[in-house]
Amino acid sequence: MLPLFACSAFFGLTPFAHANTIALDLTKAVLTDGASIIGGPKIKFDPNTSGQTATFTIPSVSGTQYSISVTGQNDQSSSFFQFFIDTNGPGPGGFVQLGSNTNFGHGFTTITLPNFTDASTSDFFKIVNGGTGNSEGQISAVTVTVGIPAPALGAGLPGLIFAGGALVVWWRRTRRAQAAA
Hints:
CATH topology of one domain: Jelly Rolls
Helix content: 10-25%
Shape: elongated
Number of strands: 12
Mean pLDDT: 79
Number of helices: 2
Distance between the termini: 21 Å
CATH superfamily of one domain: Galactose-binding domain-like
Radius of gyration: 24 Å
């Protein structure tokens, strides 16, 4: 066990890198211009009005990497959704586009938007419907993955020293056990 731990420390990997996934409560979204909550719950965007929005507040940790997945459907091929994030919270800076002109198609489909790194203690995530003619669509789920899983690098010199020390201790114990036998 010790050699395995020493090798992982040597390469700067930690077994503690993990992610938390949080499902956002759709009923907590701030809805504008006729967007509404329907059974399920789902967010329904009116077929005759482009520019309706659903905005979520996401508590966050500055410097942490996030990913957002959205499950939805569109009734027409000419309707779409756009996705925006404001990673620096209230104040100057504004929204940055994460996804553009996304058409989920018929039936509910899940997409994952590009990862982003947070710059504040709260983010705003906005969904906007658009299109020509019938712009109806529904969103049935929004999930946020906090701390994108990946090997955690950065043990650096302290990890290298620790790994070397662990290997020396293991080697000495192995030699003592062989000498005693």
